[in-house]
Specification:
- By secondary structure, the protein is mainly alpha-helical.
- The protein is built from 13 helices and two strands; from the N terminus they run αααααββαααααααα.
- It has helices spanning about 30-55, 60-90, 95-130, 140-160, 160-165, 185-225, 235-250, 255-285, 295-305, 310-320, 325-330, 335-345, 345-370, and strands spanning about 165-170, 175-180.
- The chain is globular.
- One of its GO terms (cellular component) is plasma membrane.
- It holds the Pfam family 7tm_1.
- This is G-protein coupled receptors family 1 profile domain-containing protein.
Length: about 375
């Protein structure tokens, strides 16, 4: 995530000894190990989600449409952003020229913004699905507009990178660098990045889920007296299905829709947890609350490496909430090979796996009943 901020702005605050601290010092082995793990997790996880959605019989749902774009954006973060950060930490110097400097930084910024704004679009769509459950006709057109807007806004907010970044000779080596000229400009730049990348999206998402929770609570309060839990006979199942259909026609929220809201809420919660340390630390750093030492420079670079963690977490959340996706992936290599390795270890291991599988199945059924 070096396109947002690196320690180059701090050279302005210590003009008397600009060369005293190496701005490119970091714990190379530890950071390369972390970034390599993140790259593998992001690529494997999001490719798995895309495969599961493409092979799913329900891939035409609006929720899957948003999840597919979110997985594509997260995969792009891994391929474009994390991989180039790994290359930079190996070479330290920039060796691709000025045009690639601007292009790579622009693409890094765009895929990062897109991952955030697709999540905002997903939250807005869930809000529309809960507050206006009968609005089927405009659902798909609205979904396409939201996703297209997310990618367009990402490109617009990333466009200043094409002007700000350029190849420069810094401390004896060529770097893809941004130089704003004063601490005030750096503070303004970082505040705008924090607002557009984290704070404003977080407030929009929080507003969406405040309304969603209130709507569900309000409709559940109206529904509670007439829908008390009662044991059903086999002959009453068709009658219950008919009641559910009539309830849906009256605008009552189905369990499946509430489940998608819960999954999106967890994705948003993880988004805030993953991005908060990164944004807070960079704001503290740019406003001079973090002393400029060699160790703090390494720590800053390390914290910047954690920003893509959100792109690695989203596929895990999706698989936890979608048992169909996990079942579909279990039939494909290399996931089927892993299952075969466990099963081929003998009858004792197989019985343990069967026990765990049945337990997880019963737990999943109970969870779905509670959703």
């Amino acid at each position: 995530m070096d396109w947002v901020i690196r320690d180059n702005y701090t050279t302005l605050s210590n003009g008397s000894q600009p060369e005293a601290i190496n701005s490119f010092y970091f714990y190379q082995t530890e950071q390369l190990s972390l970034l390599s793990f993140l790259l593998a997790a992001i690529v494997l996880g999001n490719v798995s989600v895309l495969l599961a959605l493409l092979l799913s019989k329900r891939r035409k749902s609006r929720m899957n449409f948003f999840i597919m774009h979110l997985a594509f954006a997260d995969l792009s973060v891994g391929i474009i952003s994390v991989s180039t950060d790994i290359i930079w930490r190996i070479t330290v110097a920039w060796k691709a020229g000025n045009v690639m400097c601007k292009s790579v930084r622009f693409m890094q910024a765009m895929v990062t913004y897109s991952s955030t704004y697709v999540l905002v679009a997903l939250s807005l769509d869930r809000l529309d699905a809960i507050t206006r459950p009968m609005n089927f006709s405009r659902g798909w057109s609205r979904a396409r507009v939201l996703v297209a807007s997310a990618w367009i806004l990402s490109a617009i907010f990333s466009s200043p990178i094409l002007v700000l970044y350029e190849e420069k000779l810094i401390q004896g080596s060529l770097q893809c660098w941004i130089e704003l000229g004063s601490e005030l400009k750096w503070q303004l730049y970082m505040c705008l990045v924090a607002l557009s990348l984290f704070i404003v999206p977080a407030f929009i998402i929080a507003g969406c889920y405040t309304i969603i929770v209130y709507t569900i609570w309000k409709k559940s309060a109206h529904l509670a007296p007439n829908h008390q839990a009662m044991p059903l006979k086999d002959g009453d199942k068709h009658e219950e299905i008919g009641d559910l259909r009539r309830a849906s026609s009256r605008g009552i929220i189905p369990k499946a829709k509430i489940k998608t809201v819960k999954m999106t809420f967890v994705i948003v919660f993880v988004f805030i947890i993953c991005w908060s340390p990164y944004i807070i630390f960079d704001l503290l750093q740019v406003f001079g609350h973090v002393p400029r030492t060699q160790t703090n420079i390494a720590v800053a670079t390390f914290i910047q490496s954690l920003a893509p963690l959100n792109s690695a977490a989203n596929p895990v959340i999706y698989c936890l909430f979608s048992t169909r996706a996990c079942t579909t992936l279990g039939k494909l290599p290399p996931f089927s090979w892993i299952c075969c390795c466990f099963v081929s270890r003998g009858p004792e291991t197989s019985s343990i796996i069967d026990t765990v599988t049945s337990t997880l199945r019963r737990a999943t059924m109970r969870t779905q009943d509670n959703l």
